[in-house]
Amino acid sequence: MFSNASNFVHGVDLAFFIITGISLFFLITLTAMMIFFVVKYNKKKGIPAVQIKNNSLLEITWITIPMILVLYMFYIGWEGFIPMRQAPKDAMEVKAIGQMWKWTFEYKGNKQSDTLVLPIHKAVKVNLISKDVLHGFFIPSFRIKEDVVPQKNNYSWFIPGELGDFDLYCTVYCGVNHSFMTSIVRIVSQNDYDKWLATLNEKKPDIDNKGYKVLEKNGCFTCHTKDGGKSVGPSFESLYGSTIEVATNGTSRKLVVDSAYIVSSIIDPNKDIAVGYPQGIMKSYKGIVKEEEFKLINDYLKSIK
User: Fold this and answer.
1) Domain 210-303 is in which class?
2) Model confidence, pTM
3) Cross-strand partners of 97
4) Residue-wise pLDDT tens digits, 185-242
5) In this structure, which topology does domain 92-199 adopt according to CATH?
6) Which of 15, 50, 171, 177 could make an S-S bridge to 136, C-beta 3.0–4.6 Å?
Protein backbone atom coordinates (compact mmCIF):
# COMPACT_ATOMS: atom_id res chain seq x y z
CA MET A 1 0.00 0.00 0.00
CA PHE A 2 2.77 2.45 0.93
CA SER A 3 5.83 3.36 -1.14
CA ASN A 4 9.33 2.81 0.27
CA ALA A 5 10.84 5.84 -1.52
CA SER A 6 11.86 7.30 1.85
CA ASN A 7 11.53 6.53 5.54
CA PHE A 8 8.83 9.20 5.98
CA VAL A 9 6.33 7.95 3.40
CA HIS A 10 4.44 5.61 5.74
CA GLY A 11 3.95 8.14 8.54
CA VAL A 12 2.89 11.02 6.26
CA ASP A 13 0.51 8.87 4.20
CA LEU A 14 -1.04 7.29 7.31
CA ALA A 15 -1.78 10.73 8.80
CA PHE A 16 -3.19 11.89 5.46
CA PHE A 17 -5.50 8.88 5.05
CA ILE A 18 -6.77 9.05 8.64
CA ILE A 19 -7.51 12.80 8.54
CA THR A 20 -9.08 12.51 5.08
CA GLY A 21 -11.18 9.55 6.24
CA ILE A 22 -12.45 11.42 9.32
CA SER A 23 -13.24 14.49 7.19
CA LEU A 24 -15.14 12.43 4.61
CA PHE A 25 -17.10 10.64 7.35
CA PHE A 26 -18.33 13.91 8.83
CA LEU A 27 -18.96 15.47 5.42
CA ILE A 28 -21.24 12.60 4.42
CA THR A 29 -22.84 12.23 7.88
CA LEU A 30 -23.58 15.92 8.40
CA THR A 31 -24.85 16.37 4.84
CA ALA A 32 -27.19 13.38 5.23
CA MET A 33 -28.45 14.67 8.60
CA MET A 34 -29.01 18.14 7.19
CA ILE A 35 -31.10 16.76 4.31
CA PHE A 36 -33.04 14.52 6.72
CA PHE A 37 -33.90 17.37 9.12
CA VAL A 38 -34.79 19.75 6.28
CA VAL A 39 -37.28 17.23 4.91
CA LYS A 40 -38.65 15.95 8.24
CA TYR A 41 -39.00 19.29 10.00
CA ASN A 42 -39.98 21.55 7.14
CA LYS A 43 -42.60 24.17 8.00
CA LYS A 44 -46.19 22.85 7.91
CA LYS A 45 -49.39 24.87 8.12
CA GLY A 46 -51.28 24.66 11.39
CA ILE A 47 -48.49 23.04 13.35
CA PRO A 48 -46.70 25.40 15.74
CA ALA A 49 -42.89 25.21 15.99
CA VAL A 50 -41.45 23.68 19.15
CA GLN A 51 -38.06 24.73 20.54
CA ILE A 52 -35.85 22.05 22.09
CA LYS A 53 -33.25 23.34 24.54
CA ASN A 54 -31.19 22.50 27.64
CA ASN A 55 -30.16 19.02 26.47
CA SER A 56 -26.95 18.65 28.47
CA LEU A 57 -26.13 15.17 27.14
CA LEU A 58 -26.34 16.35 23.53
CA GLU A 59 -24.15 19.40 24.26
CA ILE A 60 -21.51 17.34 26.05
CA THR A 61 -21.51 14.84 23.17
CA TRP A 62 -20.99 17.38 20.39
CA ILE A 63 -18.18 19.07 22.33
CA THR A 64 -16.36 15.93 23.53
CA ILE A 65 -16.32 13.88 20.32
CA PRO A 66 -14.91 16.66 18.05
CA MET A 67 -12.35 17.58 20.72
CA ILE A 68 -11.12 13.97 20.95
CA LEU A 69 -10.94 13.69 17.14
CA VAL A 70 -9.04 16.98 16.76
CA LEU A 71 -6.54 15.97 19.46
CA TYR A 72 -6.11 12.59 17.77
CA MET A 73 -5.45 14.21 14.38
CA PHE A 74 -2.95 16.56 16.00
CA TYR A 75 -1.22 13.59 17.64
CA ILE A 76 -0.75 11.57 14.45
CA GLY A 77 0.48 14.67 12.62
CA TRP A 78 2.90 15.52 15.43
CA GLU A 79 4.10 11.91 15.60
CA GLY A 80 4.97 12.05 11.90
CA PHE A 81 6.53 15.54 12.06
CA ILE A 82 8.93 15.13 15.02
CA PRO A 83 11.20 12.51 13.33
CA MET A 84 11.58 14.87 10.35
CA ARG A 85 13.38 17.37 12.61
CA GLN A 86 15.73 14.83 14.22
CA ALA A 87 18.47 14.13 11.71
CA PRO A 88 20.98 11.46 12.75
CA LYS A 89 24.36 12.80 13.81
CA ASP A 90 26.14 10.55 11.32
CA ALA A 91 23.96 11.59 8.36
CA MET A 92 25.73 12.48 5.12
CA GLU A 93 25.43 16.25 4.50
CA VAL A 94 24.65 18.00 1.22
CA LYS A 95 23.85 21.65 0.52
CA ALA A 96 20.81 22.49 -1.63
CA ILE A 97 21.23 26.03 -2.93
CA GLY A 98 18.12 27.66 -4.36
CA GLN A 99 18.22 30.72 -6.57
CA MET A 100 16.11 32.17 -9.36
CA TRP A 101 15.45 29.79 -11.03
CA LYS A 102 17.46 26.65 -10.42
CA TRP A 103 18.78 24.24 -7.79
CA THR A 104 22.47 23.60 -7.19
CA PHE A 105 23.74 20.83 -4.91
CA GLU A 106 27.10 21.01 -3.18
CA TYR A 107 28.92 17.93 -1.85
CA LYS A 108 31.93 17.34 0.34
CA GLY A 109 35.11 18.59 -1.31
CA ASN A 110 33.40 21.69 -2.76
CA LYS A 111 31.92 19.68 -5.64
CA GLN A 112 28.67 20.80 -7.29
CA SER A 113 25.94 19.32 -9.43
CA ASP A 114 22.52 20.36 -10.75
CA THR A 115 21.16 16.88 -9.93
CA LEU A 116 20.84 15.61 -6.36
CA VAL A 117 22.54 12.22 -6.53
CA LEU A 118 22.43 10.14 -3.33
CA PRO A 119 23.23 6.59 -2.19
CA ILE A 120 20.34 4.30 -1.27
CA HIS A 121 19.63 3.33 2.37
CA LYS A 122 21.87 6.09 3.77
CA ALA A 123 20.65 8.96 5.96
CA VAL A 124 21.10 12.30 4.20
CA LYS A 125 20.80 15.76 5.74
CA VAL A 126 20.14 18.44 3.12
CA ASN A 127 21.09 21.93 4.33
CA LEU A 128 18.82 24.43 2.60
CA ILE A 129 20.19 27.78 1.43
CA SER A 130 18.61 30.57 -0.63
CA LYS A 131 20.72 33.10 -2.51
CA ASP A 132 17.89 35.49 -3.23
CA VAL A 133 14.19 34.98 -2.39
CA LEU A 134 11.95 32.46 -0.65
CA HIS A 135 11.90 28.99 -2.27
CA GLY A 136 10.31 25.65 -1.38
CA PHE A 137 12.24 22.34 -1.35
CA PHE A 138 9.71 19.64 -2.26
CA ILE A 139 10.25 15.97 -3.15
CA PRO A 140 6.71 14.53 -3.48
CA SER A 141 7.77 10.88 -3.64
CA PHE A 142 9.71 11.27 -0.38
CA ARG A 143 6.94 13.30 1.34
CA ILE A 144 9.53 16.01 2.04
CA LYS A 145 8.76 19.75 1.95
CA GLU A 146 10.67 22.56 3.63
CA ASP A 147 10.96 26.31 3.12
CA VAL A 148 14.25 27.69 1.83
CA VAL A 149 14.55 31.14 3.41
CA PRO A 150 17.23 33.78 2.71
CA GLN A 151 19.63 34.32 5.63
CA LYS A 152 18.06 31.51 7.65
CA ASN A 153 19.45 28.04 8.31
CA ASN A 154 17.00 25.24 7.56
CA TYR A 155 17.37 21.59 6.63
CA SER A 156 15.59 18.42 5.65
CA TRP A 157 16.68 14.83 6.09
CA PHE A 158 15.56 11.41 4.88
CA ILE A 159 16.72 7.89 4.07
CA PRO A 160 16.16 6.94 0.39
CA GLY A 161 14.62 3.50 0.06
CA GLU A 162 14.21 2.98 -3.70
CA LEU A 163 16.54 3.28 -6.69
CA GLY A 164 15.57 5.62 -9.51
CA ASP A 165 14.87 9.23 -10.40
CA PHE A 166 12.42 11.38 -8.41
CA ASP A 167 11.13 14.88 -9.15
CA LEU A 168 12.17 17.87 -7.06
CA TYR A 169 10.19 21.12 -7.24
CA CYS A 170 10.16 24.65 -5.87
CA THR A 171 6.76 25.16 -4.22
CA VAL A 172 6.99 28.89 -3.53
CA TYR A 173 6.34 31.38 -6.34
CA CYS A 174 9.74 32.97 -6.78
CA GLY A 175 9.40 35.00 -9.95
CA VAL A 176 8.72 34.79 -13.64
CA ASN A 177 10.41 31.42 -14.28
CA HIS A 178 9.26 29.70 -11.09
CA SER A 179 7.74 26.81 -13.07
CA PHE A 180 11.16 25.99 -14.54
CA MET A 181 12.76 25.55 -11.12
CA THR A 182 12.79 21.76 -11.14
CA SER A 183 15.47 19.14 -10.68
CA ILE A 184 15.98 15.40 -10.23
CA VAL A 185 16.82 13.36 -7.14
CA ARG A 186 18.73 10.32 -8.40
CA ILE A 187 19.08 7.41 -5.97
CA VAL A 188 21.87 4.96 -6.84
CA SER A 189 23.87 2.22 -5.15
CA GLN A 190 26.75 3.23 -2.85
CA ASN A 191 29.27 1.97 -5.40
CA ASP A 192 27.71 3.98 -8.24
CA TYR A 193 27.51 7.04 -6.01
CA ASP A 194 31.22 6.85 -5.15
CA LYS A 195 32.12 6.54 -8.85
CA TRP A 196 29.86 9.48 -9.77
CA LEU A 197 31.23 11.71 -7.00
CA ALA A 198 34.80 10.97 -8.12
CA THR A 199 33.98 12.31 -11.61
CA LEU A 200 32.77 15.68 -10.29
CA ASN A 201 35.26 18.49 -10.60
CA GLU A 202 35.93 20.71 -7.63
CA LYS A 203 34.12 24.01 -7.95
CA LYS A 204 36.50 26.79 -8.89
CA PRO A 205 35.69 30.09 -7.16
CA ASP A 206 34.74 32.93 -9.52
CA ILE A 207 35.02 35.62 -6.89
CA ASP A 208 38.55 36.55 -7.94
CA ASN A 209 37.69 36.85 -11.64
CA LYS A 210 37.33 40.51 -12.66
CA GLY A 211 34.78 39.76 -15.40
CA TYR A 212 32.68 37.81 -12.92
CA LYS A 213 32.76 40.77 -10.53
CA VAL A 214 31.47 43.09 -13.26
CA LEU A 215 28.57 40.77 -14.07
CA GLU A 216 27.76 40.24 -10.40
CA LYS A 217 27.89 43.98 -9.66
CA ASN A 218 25.34 44.66 -12.38
CA GLY A 219 22.98 41.86 -11.33
CA CYS A 220 23.50 39.77 -14.48
CA PHE A 221 23.32 36.44 -12.61
CA THR A 222 19.74 37.18 -11.61
CA CYS A 223 18.61 36.40 -15.17
CA HIS A 224 21.56 34.39 -16.57
CA THR A 225 23.03 31.21 -15.11
CA LYS A 226 26.63 30.13 -15.57
CA ASP A 227 26.05 26.37 -15.50
CA GLY A 228 23.50 25.74 -18.25
CA GLY A 229 20.43 26.12 -16.01
CA LYS A 230 17.20 27.68 -17.34
CA SER A 231 16.49 31.31 -16.55
CA VAL A 232 15.01 34.48 -18.05
CA GLY A 233 17.99 34.88 -20.36
CA PRO A 234 20.41 32.43 -22.05
CA SER A 235 22.91 30.68 -19.81
CA PHE A 236 26.50 31.94 -19.97
CA GLU A 237 27.83 28.37 -20.05
CA SER A 238 29.43 27.61 -23.44
CA LEU A 239 27.67 30.69 -24.85
CA TYR A 240 30.75 32.45 -26.23
CA GLY A 241 31.60 31.12 -29.71
CA SER A 242 28.33 29.22 -30.06
CA THR A 243 25.80 29.75 -32.86
CA ILE A 244 22.38 30.90 -31.68
CA GLU A 245 19.12 31.87 -33.33
CA VAL A 246 17.95 35.43 -32.75
CA ALA A 247 15.02 37.58 -33.79
CA THR A 248 16.01 40.94 -35.34
CA ASN A 249 13.11 43.28 -36.15
CA GLY A 250 10.82 40.25 -36.28
CA THR A 251 13.11 38.29 -38.61
CA SER A 252 14.80 35.11 -37.41
CA ARG A 253 18.47 34.62 -38.18
CA LYS A 254 21.51 32.79 -36.85
CA LEU A 255 24.68 34.41 -35.58
CA VAL A 256 27.86 33.53 -33.73
CA VAL A 257 28.19 34.84 -30.18
CA ASP A 258 31.36 36.91 -30.31
CA SER A 259 32.70 40.07 -28.65
CA ALA A 260 30.62 42.33 -30.90
CA TYR A 261 27.41 40.48 -30.05
CA ILE A 262 28.16 40.59 -26.29
CA VAL A 263 28.72 44.35 -26.43
CA SER A 264 25.60 44.86 -28.55
CA SER A 265 23.50 42.76 -26.14
CA ILE A 266 24.64 44.88 -23.20
CA ILE A 267 24.14 48.27 -24.89
CA ASP A 268 21.02 47.45 -26.94
CA PRO A 269 19.56 44.24 -25.42
CA ASN A 270 16.36 44.29 -27.51
CA LYS A 271 18.09 44.49 -30.87
CA ASP A 272 18.82 40.75 -31.28
CA ILE A 273 16.60 38.68 -28.97
CA ALA A 274 17.62 35.03 -28.51
CA VAL A 275 14.72 32.90 -29.74
CA GLY A 276 12.73 31.38 -26.88
CA TYR A 277 13.40 34.21 -24.43
CA PRO A 278 11.15 37.18 -23.56
CA GLN A 279 11.69 40.65 -24.98
CA GLY A 280 11.85 43.88 -23.04
CA ILE A 281 13.03 42.47 -19.71
CA MET A 282 16.67 43.50 -19.86
CA LYS A 283 17.43 47.22 -19.67
CA SER A 284 20.27 48.90 -21.56
CA TYR A 285 23.55 49.14 -19.66
CA LYS A 286 24.92 51.85 -21.92
CA GLY A 287 26.95 54.19 -19.75
CA ILE A 288 26.70 51.79 -16.80
CA VAL A 289 29.18 49.16 -18.03
CA LYS A 290 32.42 50.97 -18.75
CA GLU A 291 34.44 50.52 -21.94
CA GLU A 292 37.28 48.65 -20.22
CA GLU A 293 34.80 46.29 -18.54
CA PHE A 294 33.56 44.84 -21.83
CA LYS A 295 36.89 43.04 -22.35
CA LEU A 296 36.75 41.64 -18.80
CA ILE A 297 33.24 40.27 -19.47
CA ASN A 298 34.29 38.73 -22.77
CA ASP A 299 37.33 37.07 -21.19
CA TYR A 300 35.17 35.62 -18.42
CA LEU A 301 32.52 34.30 -20.84
CA LYS A 302 35.24 32.65 -22.91
CA SER A 303 36.37 30.75 -19.81
CA ILE A 304 32.93 29.22 -19.08
CA LYS A 305 32.80 25.98 -21.02
Assistant:
1) mainly alpha
2) 0.65
3) 104, 129
4) 999 999 999 999 988 766 655 556 788 888 888 878 777 877 676 677 888 888 888 8
5) Immunoglobulin-like (2.60.40)
6) 171
